[in-house]
Structure formats: structure tokens, C-alpha cells
Amino acid sequence: MELKLLNDQGQAASNVAAPDTIFGRDYNEALIHQIVVAYQANARSGNRKQKDREEVHHTTKKPWRQKGTGRARAGMSSSPLWRGGGRIFPNSPDENFSHKVNKKMYRAGVCSILSQLAREDRLSVIEDLSVEAPKTKLLSQKLKGMGLDSVLVITDNLDENLLLASRNLPNVLVCEPRHADPVSLVFFKKVLITKPALAKIEEMLA
After folding, report:
1. pTM of the entire structure?
2. FRET label pair with 191: which of 2, 64, 104, 127, CA 20 to 30 Å apart?
């Protein structure tokens, strides 16, 4: 498998050899869906609290007598059937949304995503990406000159200038190989990997 090596103008200067075990796998849609859903679910926090019929503050007096009114039987106004009553299955702060995904499945899913990105010409390699100062304008102009508007940059050495310059760009994310998550790989239109980061990815997913 060969990946395009881009120059500073965003044009393909040459090719870089990449292992087929990582960048030449078949597209496994079910597995990719599973790891993306699991990643998003594991990022959720149980921060909602609802009250059940025991916790709502209502009188326990019977609203009306059991028989003779023509209305349905009612024991107390905190019933979940009543407006303002407790919830039947309330959300609690200790609710667990996590999904378990085996390491082997996760790596296979990431490899499948990378392979599909390479087939769709959305993944490229670059020697290095840096800016002279932590200015958003400099990075924006550089990416615009390369024809990139939505890009995930995976770099081995997280340069502080590059990180600070990218923070205010909504469609640009700079991260290290170990922080390249499945959601970001799927979300961005283009993925740029520096040469040292490519070697690290191959070592991680081998």
C-alpha cells in the first residue's frame, strides 16, 4: 500500500510505503459502527437526576374516596400517571453508559477506518507541519494554500505553536497518534499524518 506524500502546497510530491495490514484492510462497516458508538457512549457522563414517586414532595392523602365518584381509583397525587408525579424509570447520576470493546476489535476497527480513508484519497502523509508563531491566521493561510478546510493533523511531536494556532479553528484538530480516536477519523474530511507519526501508528497497530 502506498500513501501520497504532500508538499507545502498540498500537491502529491511522491509516495510513501505503508503496510497492507493497517492501510489495506477491507471495509467493515459493522465493526466501525460499533467502535464509534462505544467511543461516544464511553464519553457520556450520568449527570441527570429525576425523582421517582417516593422522592417527589406530594401529600399522601387520598385525592378522593375509592368508590362513588365515577372517576378512576387514585391513591396519591405522586403517582407517575399524574401530572407532576414521579417518573417510572428515573435517570440517576450513577447511570452507566459505557460499552466494552476488546483491544483487538478496537485496533481492527481503526485499521479499517484508515484503510477506507486511504481508498477514498482522504488520508495523506506530510513531512512536517509547523508554524512560526502561535497565530491562528498563519495556520489558516497555510491550510488554505494546501486546499484543506476540514482536517485532522496527526503529528508525533506536538508543537506548542501548532497546537495554539489550531485551537480557534473549528474544522481543524491537531493531536498525537495515541489520541486519534475513531470519531475524529470519521468526522474530518481529510487526515494528515506526519512521517514520524506514521511510523508510530504502524508500531501501535501492528
Report:
1. 0.82
2. 104
* Residue pLDDT, tens place only, 41-61: 999 888 889 999 999 999 999
Question: pLDDT digits over 101-127, tens only?
Answer: 999 999 999 999 999 999 999 999 998
In the numeric block, which cell numbers belong to residue 108? 481492527
Please list the residues that pair with 175 across neighbouring strands: 154
| Continuous segment of H or E residues that includes residue 6 | strand 2-6
DSSP for 129-148, please give it: ---SSS-HHHHHHHHHHTT-
Which amino acid is residue 17, in one-letter code?
A
Cβ atoms within 10 Å of 112's Cβ, excluding its own: 20
For 187, the 3-state DSSP assignment is helix
140: left (phi over 0), alpha (psi -120 to 50) or beta: alpha
Domain spans in the chain, listed from the N-terminal domain onward: 2-43+100-205, 45-96
Neighbours of 148 (CB within 10 A): 19
Q: Domain 2-43+100-205: give its CATH architecture.
A: 3-Layer(aba) Sandwich (3.40)
Exposure class string for 161-173: b at 16+ Cβ within 10 A, else e = ebebbbeebeebb
E strand or H helix at 194: strand 190-194
